[in-house]
Amino acid sequence: MTADHTTDMPEPGSWKALLANPYLTGPLKFILPLAIIPAIFATLYLIEPYQQFLMLSGLLIAYFIPPAGKESIIPIAILMGYPWWLVTLVIFLLDVAVSLFVVWNFDLALKIPLVGRLLESGMTAGRNYTDTQPWLRRFSTIGLVLFVFFPLQGTGAMNGAIVGRLLGLDKARVFGCVCAGSIASSLIIALGADVLLDVYRQNPALGIGILAAIVTAVLAAIIGWRMHEKRLRERTPR
């Protein structure tokens, strides 16, 4: 008798049935995003000297605490001597983990005491933002990328995923928009900080002048945006 090797091969449909099993995919969708974060710290522990690992870990933990964000954590890390590509990659992976968790586990996460309060505050901020920015609904995909891209407080991966849900986008599109906005924003901030640091080393006066001009322009943009939002809120009927 000859062995029938075809019986050892799984049928193509069995994989779809396996992935459709909520008892398997449910825990996987909950655990996988959470596993990314300790994996990042473990990798940094292996590739960085211990003191540098501790300092970078502190910055990454601060990244989750408002009002810290890409616009502050990334330049600080580069000023401390970390390469721009490492900082960009780590921040992007953290955003991937957060957005995946929110996209996959939003309803469940609302029931977790601390996480649920954070998500509810994000939903409130997201509703207020979408109500005052009607263009965001018209250009939902591009609007969500821009929402995550601009490094302002409250426009990170978590709130971006929440806004995507409020806009009614499917999960894959929300995740893609958050990732696109995150990597673009992180790259621009990291490369800009790295170039500015090189300019400062060669010509301190020029470096300080460029930094002052950037800070002034950013503050002016923020003040202008806040005034624009205030005018929109005043026009919106209650």
UniProtKB/TrEMBL annotation:
Q: Which residues form the signal peptide?
A: none
Q: Where are the transmembrane segments?
A: 30-47, 53-69, 81-104, 139-162, 174-193, 205-225
**Keywords for this entry?**
Membrane, Transmembrane, Transmembrane helix
Stated name of the protein: Small multi-drug export protein
Q: Which species is this record about?
A: Methanoculleus oceani
